[in-house]
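Study the following:
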Amino acid sequence: MPRSTDTVNVVPDWEMLSDEELLKVRVRDLGLRVEGTHLQDKIQRLYAELGQRGIALRPPCYLADEWLTPDKIPTIGIPFFLAHPRLTALEQKIMLEVEGGTDAWCMKLLRHETGHAINYAYRLYLRTRWRELFGPFSTPYSSRYWPRPYSRRFVTHLEDNYAQAHPDEDFAETFAVWLTPGSDWATKYEGWPALKKLRYVDRVMKTIGGEKPKVTVHRTPWSAARMVSTLEAFYQRKRQELGVEYSGYYDPALRRIFSARPADSGSPSASRFLRKRRRMIVDSAALWTGERKYDIDKLLRKLTARCEHMGLHVHRPDEETLGQITAFVVAVTGKAGTLRRKALER
C-alpha cells in the first residue's frame, strides 16, 4: 500500500460530502483519531479486563487499514472506518458488512488482537510448552485454510473456526476466550482437548501477567495516518484481495439465475426457494464434487443471505431454477476444491 511523507491536508467537513465526493478523499486527509470516539471507550474497557486479570500490559491501539497486530510487535491496529459513523456507513454500503461494527464483535476482535500482543510482548511463542500445545510459530500462513468445525482441539471465538488458521491464531483465540468476562471456559470446554490450552493460558498469565513486557517496541505499520490511497482506491483493492470471500462476489450470477421482479404474484422469493431446497442442493453438489456437505451448506447459506438482501425472486419454472442454482453451486464448490488440493500439494 502506498505510503508518503507528503503534508496531510485534512478535508474540512468531509462527513457532509456525498459518497462519490468522499471516495475521492485520501484516507490520511480525513484526520482520524481514536481519541474521543467510541473506540476509546472500548479500549478502556479492554484495559479494565486486563487489569482485573492482573495483566500489566496495555497494548497501544492505533487506526490502520484493517484489524491487525503487526508480526512480533505488541501493538493493535483497528480499521479506520470504525472511527467515524460516516465511514462505517460507507463500509457497510460498499462491503455489505462492517467487521467489528457491533459492540460485541468489536470487543471480540480487541480481545483476539490482545492475544497476539501478549504473545509477542512476552515472547511466549519461544516456549517449549507453547509449541507443544499450539504448534510451531514458524508455520507458514496460508491464504486459505480448511477448518474442521467439529474439532474439540480448538476453542470457538471468532467465526469460521479461526483458531485453526495458524498456531498464533490458536493462541490468540484461546487467550480471548480466557479473557472474556463471564465466559466460564472451564465448564464450557470440559472434556475438550482445548481445555489444556486454556489452562496453560490461565497458568502462564498468573505467572507473568504482572511482569514488565520483554518487547516494548510499538511501531504502527499500515497506519491510516500515512495512507495516501483515496477511499475509492482502498475499496477497489480490498474487494480484489477478498475475491470470493467478498460478500457480493456472486451477485452477478445470482441476478442471472433469479430476478429482482417476481414473474407473478405467486412467485416465491429466491431465499425462500433456496431454504426449501437446501438439502437437495447440498446433497447433489456433494455427490458431484466430493466436497464436504458442511462447506457446501456454508456457501449456500451465504448465497441465500445475498438473495434475501437483494430482494431476488424466482421467475422461471422451479425445475429450471433448481438446475441452474445446483449447477452454479457445483461449479463454485468444485473450483474451491481444486484450489484447496493444489494448495495442499505445494
Summary: Residues 318-345 form the longest helix (28 residues). Residues 267 and 314 are 6 Å apart (CA to CA).
